[in-house]
Amino acid sequence: xxxxxxxxxxxxxxxxxxxxxxxxxxxxxxxxxxxxxxxxxxxxxxxxxxxxxxxxxxxxxxxxxxxxxxxxxxxxxxxxxxxxxxxxxxxxxxxxxxxxxxxxxxxxxxxxxxxxxxxxxxxxxxxxxxxxxxxxxxxxxxxxxxxxxxxxxxxxxxxxxxxxxxxxxxxxxxxxxxxxxxxxxxxxxxxxxxxxxxxxxxxxxxxxxxxxxxxxxxxxxxxxxxxxxxxxxxxxxxxxxxxxxxxxxxxxxxxxxxxxxxxxxxxxxxxxxxxxxxxxxxxx
Length: 284
Ligand code: NAD
Known about the structure:
The chain has 2 domains: 30-114, 3-Layer(aba) Sandwich (Rossmann fold), CATH 3.40.50.10860; 139-261, Rossmann fold. The protein has 10 helices and 11 strands. The N and C termini lie far apart (43 Å). The strands form 3 sheets. A 6-stranded parallel β-sheet has the order 1-11-8-7-5-6. The protein has a 3-stranded parallel β-sheet with strand order 3-2-4, sandwiched between helices. The chain has 284 residues and is of the alpha/beta class. Helix 6 (139-150) packs across helix 7. Strand 5 (159-163), helix 7 (170-179) and strand 6 (183-187) form a beta-alpha-beta unit. The protein has helices spanning 7-27, 43-58, 74-85, 105-111, 123-131, 139-150, 170-179, 194-199, 244-247, 262-280; strands at 3-4, 33-39, 62-68, 92-95, 159-163, 183-187, 203-206, 224-227, 231-232, 238-239, 253-254. Bound molecules: nicotinamide-adenine-dinucleotide. Nicotinamide-adenine-dinucleotide binds at residues 140, 163-166, 168-170, 187-189, 191, 194, 207-209, 228-231, 261-262, 265. Nicotinamide-adenine-dinucleotide binds next to helix 10.
């Protein structure tokens, strides 16, 4: 039976380490501050933002939520970002995406100061990730790397297959695996022979967004299987992209959903905010 990678426990350990660093920073008069902008009333976005606020408070950050109506104009939103860019008590800024219709996600990402871009979505930070000198790690892929490291799994020389090529998960995931000397294959909706490629993977990362997409016949015995997907199954129950019950007996290690990658994403957001606060205050 596979090692079940406990993202909840690993995220809690990481949050504990962050909280300890916050104590040290506070003793020097620095409180890391994160501002989260929420435009409109999408229930899923409201839940995500609430969870981020709660996590910030638990590690001792200053957290500010800016709620804007769905009728906010592009200019008004950019003006809010600009004010946050200039505030000394705010070290990290994120705008919950997707934005309501009529507002431009990419313009808002571009407007956030790269120094405060704790989601690592700004083109400048994406470029840093590409050349391997990143100041902020892309939260979900970096969360996956933490799970791999803290489970004692090495990436070097392994064949890593990433299913999905989005800017927030698939592409940066592939770059982080490459940086650790994995041999990386990126698969996507137009890939031919997907199951064959997946069967060659020592490390298989699924970021597709389709319930039970990765079936047992796509997994090599002993492989590490990381499930980034967040879906609902036919009974409305939360599930990942991997058919967990069928794949667990074959895999060497596997992340469950929930309780795998999900808790790591917020923990890495906290880590990035801590990094931003240190950088903006000249702390090593
Ligand atoms: P996306 O829709 O932007 O990308 C999905 C990718 O899957 C695309 O690149 C597409 O090419 C690929 N794909 C689609 N159908 C395919 C097929 N038949 N064969 C092979 N590839 C196919 O989604 P995303 O933002 O990258 O998110 C992926 C999943 O991860 C979603 O379920 C999302 O909810 C979840 N997610 C989880 C976290 C977390 O914290 N755990 C964070 C971000 C996203």
